[in-house]
Amino acid sequence: MRSRKAKDIICRVFIVVSAVFSASILVGILGLLVSNAARFIALEPLDDFLFGTVWRPSENQTETHYGVLPLVVSSLLVTIGSMAIAIPLGIMTAIYLAGYAPKRLRWKLKAAIELLAALPSVVVGFLGIVLVSPILTNILPIHTGLNALNGSILLSIMALPTIITLSEDALHSIPQSIREAAFAVGAKKWDTLFKIVLPAAYPGILSAIMLGMGRAVGETMTVLMATGNASAFPHGFLDSVRTITATIAIEMGEVPHGTKHYYSLYSLALILFIMTFSVNLFAEHISSKIKKFR
Amino acid sequence: MRNLNKPVFIEWVMWFFAIQVFFVLGFILVYIFCNGLPVFSWRFFISAPSHGMTDGGILPAIIGTTWVTFFTVIFALPVGISCAIYFNEYAKDHLMTRIVRAAIKNLAGVPSIVFGLFGLAIFVVSISLGTSTLSAGLTLGLLTLPYTIVSTEEALRMVPKGQREAAYSLGATQWEVIKNIVLPQAIPEIATGVILTISRAAGETAPLLFTGATFYITGSIGYPMDEFMALPYHLYVLSTQHQYLEDVRPIAFATAATLLLFVLILNLVAIWIRHSYRK
C-alpha cells in the first residue's frame, strides 16, 4: 500500500518540476537577452541605436554605426508585403473552408494546408533563390531577384497556413443558431456570411492575422536566403533588404565573443523578441476577450 | 421559387482562391522533386561529399540530422508529456497555473533564431557542451517543447472525464489512473504529436547555425560531442555560399528533395493516424 503512495508522490514531483522548468525557459531567454543587451546599451547611446539609419558595425573601419532603423524597416517591409498577399488569400480560403466546402474537399484541403505549414523554411528559401528570383528578373526591370518582394512572396506561403487555420477556427466557433436566425429572416448564404458571421468572428480573425504576422517577423532562413542581405536603408520592395533575423544569423557566426558587436546582436534579438512577444500577447488578449463574450 | 443559395459569382472566386492552396503546395512539391529526384542514387545516400562538395553524397548530413532529432525527442518527449499531464490532470485553476500556461504558450511564438542564441549562450558556452549534436539537440528540444506540450494536452483532453472518475471511485491513485487509463488511450494522438515534432526538428536550421552545424568535415565525426552536418544547413550552404553555386545546384535540389520527402512522409503518416483514430 505504501509503495503505491510513494510512486504517486515521485511521479507528482517529477511532473511539477517539468512544468516549472518549462515555464522558466521563457524567463531564462528574456533574462539572457536583457543582460547582454544591457551591456551593449552601456556602450552605445540609445537614440543612436534606435534611430540611426546606418548599420555598419565592421570593426576594421574607424567609423562604426549601430543604427537599427534599416533592419527594423526591412523586417516590417517584408512582413507587411507578405501580409498583403496572405491576408486576403487566407481569409477567403478560411471562409470557403468554414462555409462552402463539401465534406470530402474540406478534409483534403485541411491536409494540404497542414502540409504547406510543414515545409521547412530552408526549402522555401531555396525556392526563392532558384524559382522566384529568375521569374522576378524576367518580369521586372531589375538586376537581381533577391529582394523584399521575393521575401514577401515566400513569407506569405509560410504565414498562410497559420492565418487560414486560426481564421477557420474563429468562423467555426460562431454558433450555428446565429446563422439559422439570419436564414429565418430571409438572408441568403453570402449575406449571412458577410454581414453577420464575419463581423462576429472579427476578433478571432484579427488574432489569426497577428499570429501570422508574428510568424513572418520571426522567420529567419527564408529571408536570409531570398532577400539579398544588403544592410542599407530600403527604399522599396525591389530593394535588397536585410531583416533583423537575417542580421543576427549572418553576423553572429563571424563576431568574436564579448565584443560590442556581439552584444549589439543580443540587443537586436531583444528588439525582435519584444516585437513578436507583444504581437502574440495582443493576439491572445483579443481571443480571450471573445471567450469571455461566449 | 429560385434557389436562393445558388452560388454567387463571389463564391466561385472564393473557391478559386481556396484551390490555390493545392496549387501552391503541388507546384512546390513537383518542382523540387522533378529537379531533385533524378540525382537520387544509392551512392547519393550512402557516401559522403567529395571533391569540395561538388560530388558524392549526403550521408553525413543524414546521420547528423538523425542524431540531432534523436536528442531533441529524448529531451522534449518526457518533459513535454509530463508538463501536459501536469496541466491537464493535476493543476488547479489559480493565477500561478495561468501564468505558467501563458509562459509556455508565448514560448511557442519566440523566433527560432532567438532559441539559437539561447542555445549558444547556455549549452555551448555556459555548460560547455561546445558546438555539438547534443547542444543542437537540446536547443531544438526547447524549441519544440511548447508544441509537444500543447498537442499532448489535446490528446489527454480527449479521454472522457468519466473514465477517470470511475477509476478513482475504485480506489486508484492519481498516478495509477494516468498510467493505466488515460495514457494508453491517448497514445495515438501523442504519437502524432511526436511525429510532427520530429518533422519540425528535422527541418529547422536557425537554431543549428551557432550550436554546431558545419559544412566541411575533415575526418570522421564523433557523436555526440563534435560539430556535425545537417540536412537543412547543408541545403542552405549549398544554395548560398558555395564556390561553384551552379555546379552544385543539382545536389542542392536533391538535398531539398530528401528533406522534403522526409517531412512529407512523416506528416502524411501523422495525418493518417489522426484520421483513422478520430473516427
In a nutshell, what does this entry contain?
Helix content of chain A is 77%, strand content 1%.
Write the layout of secondary structure elements.
The complex is a heterodimer of chains A (294) and B (279).
Chain A lengths: L1 H40 L4 H6 L3 E2 L8 E2 L2 H32 L2 H16 L2 H19 L8 H25 L3 H9 L4 H30 L2 H6 L17 H9 L7 H34 L1
Antiparallel strand pairs in A: 1-2
Helix pairs in contact in A: 1-11, 3-6, 3-8, 4-6, 5-6, 6-8, 7-8, 8-11, 10-11
Chain B lengths: L8 H28 L5 H5 L2 E2 L4 E2 L2 H32 L4 H13 L4 H15 L6 H25 L3 H9 L4 H30 L2 H6 L19 H10 L4 H33 L2
Antiparallel strand pairs in B: 1-2
Helix pairs in contact in B: 1-11, 3-6, 3-8, 5-6, 6-8, 7-8, 8-11, 10-11
Distance between the termini of chain A: 46 Å
Average pLDDT metric of chain B: 83
Report the principal-axis shape of chain A.
globular
Tell me the fraction of residues in β-strands of chain A, as a range.
under 5%
Q: Pairing-aware structural class of the strands and helices of chain B?
A: mainly alpha
Overall pLDDT of chain A? 84
Unreliable spans of chain A are none
Largest sheet geometry of chain B: 2 strands, antiparallel
What key phrases describe this protein's structure?
heterodimer; A: 294 residues; mainly alpha; two-stranded antiparallel sheet; 11 helices; globular; B: 279 residues; two-stranded antiparallel ribbon; 74% helix
Account of the 3D structure:
Chain A has 294 residues and is mostly helical. Chain A is 77% helix and 1% strand. Chain A has helices spanning 2-41, 46-51, 69-100, 103-118, 121-139, 148-172, 176-184, 189-218, 221-226, 244-252, 260-293, and strands at residues 55-56, 65-66. In chain A, strands 1-2 form a two-stranded antiparallel sheet. In chain A, strand 1 (55-56) and strand 2 (65-66) form a beta hairpin. Chain B is built from 11 helices and 2 strands; from the N terminus they run H-H-E-E-H-H-H-H-H-H-H-H-H. A two-stranded antiparallel sheet of chain B has the order 1-2. The interface between A and B is large, with 86 and 89 residues.
